[in-house]
Amino acid sequence: MTHANLKAARTEYKFDVSEMIPGAIVEHISTGVIFVDESGVIVFVNSRAEQSLNVTKEEVIGKRVDMLPLRIPLYKVLSENSRDYNTEMSVNGSVLLVKTSQVAGRGGLPGGELVEIRDITEEKRERRQREEFVAMMTHDLKSPLTVMMGYIQAIRGGMFGKVEQSVLSSIGEIDRSSKRLLGMIEDVLDAYRLEVGLLSIIREVSDIGDLVDCFCREISREAESEGIVFTYSIAENIPAIRVDRKQIVRVFSNLLGNAFKFTPRGGNVSLTLDYNEKNVVLAVTDTGVGISDTDIGRIFNKYYRANSAAGYKGTGLGLAITKAIVDAHNGYVHVESREGEGSRFSVVLPLF
Ligand code: ADP
Fold first, then answer.
1. CA quadruple 25, 31, 32, 36: dihedral positive or negative?
2. HSE of 113, CA atoms in CB hemisphere, 13 A
C-alpha cells in the first residue's frame, strides 16, 4: 500500500480515534497501546508501541493485520492469542507482556481489540538477579548446616562416648530442626532451579508401592512424637511406573509434611495409594486447619501462603515444587478442602 493509499484508508474512517480515547494521554503513557477494529484494520498505535515493536504509525495504520509481513514483531504480537490474559513474548531481545481485550462498539464508534504492551525486560532481569542471589546465599548456608548435621549424627552414634539421655533428647530436637532448615533451603534452591530450567527429572521403572511403604514407616515414628494419628494403606500389586524416585519421594514428603504441619495435636492424617487401569493415585487427607475458597486456587503459586498458615513455619514453595514435579511426570495434583475441617491432596500419575 502506498503512502497516498494509506492516507485514503485513514480518512475513509467515519470516526476520529481521538474521540474514542483521549489521544494525548494514551500517546504518552508508558504502556504500548494498539487498537484493531472489528474488520482487522489497525487504527491506532501509540508512541510506546512504536518503540517496543520497532514500527512507525505511518507503516501500519490503516493496514489489515493479515496483510502485515509475517516477520515483523507487530504481526507476532497481534496474531498471538493473548485475549484477556497476559502473554509473555520475546521481541528483539526484550520481554513484552501482551494483553488483548475485546472492546464493544458504542455510539457510532467501532468495536475491536485493544492490545496493551508492557516492556518487562528490566523487571525480569532484576527478578532473576534477586533469585540468583537467594540461590547463592542458600547454597552457602547449606554447607555449614551439613557439617553441623554430621556432628549431630556422630554424637548420636556414640563417636564421642556415652552421652546422657537428657542431652540426647535435646540433640534429637537439634537434629529435627536442622532437617527442617535443610528442607527449606532445598525448597528455595529447587524453586530457583525450576525457574531457570535446571530441575532435572530422571525417570526409572520403579515400585512405587515399595517407595511409599518405606517412607510411611519412617513417618509413622515422627507422627507419634507429634501427637498425630497417622494411618496408611497401600494397594497390593501396583504396577511398576516410570518415576524420578528422589523427586517423587519429595512429593509425598511435601504433602505429608504439610498435613502434619497444618493439623493440630490429636488430629488425623492418612495416606492411601491405589491404582486403576490408567493411573496410580496417592491421596493425603488431614483433619487440620483447611484452606478457604479464596486461597485454594492460589496455593500452588510460588511463595503463596494462605491466611490460615499464619503462625506455621514455611516458605510457600513446597506445593509449587510438588506441582512442577508431578507435571513433569504428566500427572496432576487435585485438592479439596474445607476451612476448619481439613484437606485432601491427591496426586494422579499415569501408568504409561
Ligand atoms: P508452606 O507449607 O511452606 O507454607 P506450601 O507451598 O507447601 O508452603 O503450601 C502453600 C500453602 O498452602 C500453605 O502455606 C498453606 O496455606 C496451604 N496448605 C498446604 N497444605 C495444606 C494443608 N494440608 N492444610 C492446610 N493448608 C495447607
1. negative
2. 22
Rounded CA separation 94/91 (Å)? 5
Cβ-based neighbours of 335, under 8 Å, separated by 6 or more:
291, 296, 299, 343, 344, 345, 346
pLDDT higher than 60, residue 7 = no
Q: Is the pLDDT of residue 197 over 50?
A: yes
Q: Which residues, in sequence order, are bridge partners of residue 290?
A: none
Q: Tell me the pLDDT tens digit for each residue of 164-190.
A: 999 999 999 999 899 889 988 988 888
Query: Is the CB of residue 285 below 6 angstroms from any atom belonging to ligand 1?
Result: no
- Res 1: pLDDT: 42
- Please tell me if the CB atom of residue 305 comes closer than 6 angstroms to any atom of ligand 1: yes
pLDDT attached to residue 6: 43
Best residue for ligand 1 mutational test, from 180, 181, 262, 282 (most atoms within 8 Å of Cβ): 262
In the prediction, which pLDDT does 22 show?
Answer: 66
Ligand 1 contact, 262 CB (< 6 A)? yes
**pLDDT of amino acid 5:** 46
Q: Is 330 exposed, middle or buried (0-12, 13-18, 19+ CB in 10 A)?
A: exposed
Residue 291 carries which DSSP code?
-
b/e 146-167 (16+ beta carbons within 10 angstroms → b): eeebeebeebeeeeeeeeeeee
Q: Is the pTM of this model over 0.85?
A: no
* Beta bridge partners of residue 109, listed in sequence order: 106
Which residue has a Cα nearest atom 21 of ligand 1?
Answer: 258
| Ligand 1 centre distance from Cα of residue 345 (Å) | 11
Q: What pLDDT digit, counting tens, does each position of 24-58 carry? A: 788 888 899 999 999 999 999 999 999 999 999 99
Burial of 82 (0-12, 13-18, 19+ CB in 10 A): buried
Residue 291 Cβ < 6 Å to ligand 1: yes
User: What integer is the mean pLDDT of 110-123?
Assistant: 90
Those residues with Cβ within 8 angstroms of residue 94's Cβ, 6 or more apart along the chain or in another chain: 52, 119, 121
